[in-house]
Design a protein that fits this description.
This protein has about 325 residues and is α+β, with helices and mostly antiparallel strands. It contains nine helices and 14 strands. About 25% of the residues lie in helices and about 25% in strands. Bound molecules: adenosine-5'-diphosphate (ADP) and manganese (II) ion (3 copies). The site of one manganese (II) ion (MN) has 4 residues, from strand 6.
Length: about 325
Amino acid sequence: MAYRAEYIWIDGKKPTSLLRSKTKVLADGADLPIWGFDGSSTEQAPGTQSDCVLNPVKVVPDPIRGGDDVLVMCEVLNVDMTPHETNTRAAAVTALEKYGDQEPWFGLEQEYTFYKDGRPHGWPIGGFPAPQGGYYCGIGADEIWGRDIVEDHTLACMEAGISISGTNAEVMIGQWEFQIGPLDTVAVGDELWLARWLLYRIAEDYDISATLEPKPVAGDWNGAGMHTNFSTRAMRESWDPIIEACEALGEKAQEHVESYGAGIERRLTGMHETAPWSEFSYGVSDRGASVRIPWQVDQEKKGYIEDRRPNANADPYVVAALMTDTVCSKLA
Ligand code: ADP
Ligand code: MN
Ligand code: MN
Ligand code: MN
């Protein structure tokens, strides 16, 4: 039978790109071709030269449609087959080609917030919910909103073969997290973008939107981040490279913060388990530091570090490419 391929790509919206997708019906057994779209409708091209190219980079079984149907993560190319200016994956490929011998691994913690009727899911009409305290890893209908979507999404990721490694309810009401990885500099971006698409798509069926807004509610409510856990083979084997990696990140702190997602100064205030965006620090078990060394890593004197700065709305290709370049150029 003919089958459906959902071509998924990242658009050119500023300051934060969104996902787009469309369906191609293919003959039984036919290969996935490159395809095109109207870049003038996605902030990727002027109307007079509107064609952009979709180049498949990762194909997984479609857990929603089932059967032979597939999801196709694509990169965007110009018609001369060079990377489009919005194609952030290209730099991740370059970084991995350069430093792949150091075996960089990433584990991303994607936090997000469910919205219903224009407010965070669970937020009462015309009032305030109980303050933070019981929502994180909470249980019960008085603490938790949207678990049915989370369960569906986790299963969908597993069926698609995406490396989801866990989920938890977060500190703010209606806020959740899933983790992807560990995977290399390029694969972690491919799989996180696919997992984001599945989240939006599944929540659609519940009339709920999932957002990556980094500070959904101002004031005494936690923001949403994309903590980035990182290691190289050397870091997984001994202690000194762990410290060298932290120091290397400190030397380029400003450049990193600027690439870690729009609105980062609203989230990295120094409150709510963050370090101020303008200062760099690292420490063992310190959730108020820019970079945390987990306690097991300190105990075993090897493992990985957690960069807590990236926003939920950060582009994983950009974050992973930058961390690979910054740390691996020092460890080389
Ligand atoms: P937290 O305690 O900060 O909430 P999580 O358990 O949510 O941490 O996420 C930890 C992430 O770190 C997971 O995605 C996991 O796959 C990843 N991870 C574990 N070991 C490594 C490693 N050596 N290198 C990179 N990432 C790793
Ligand atoms: Mn976590
Ligand atoms: Mn978290
Ligand atoms: Mn974390």
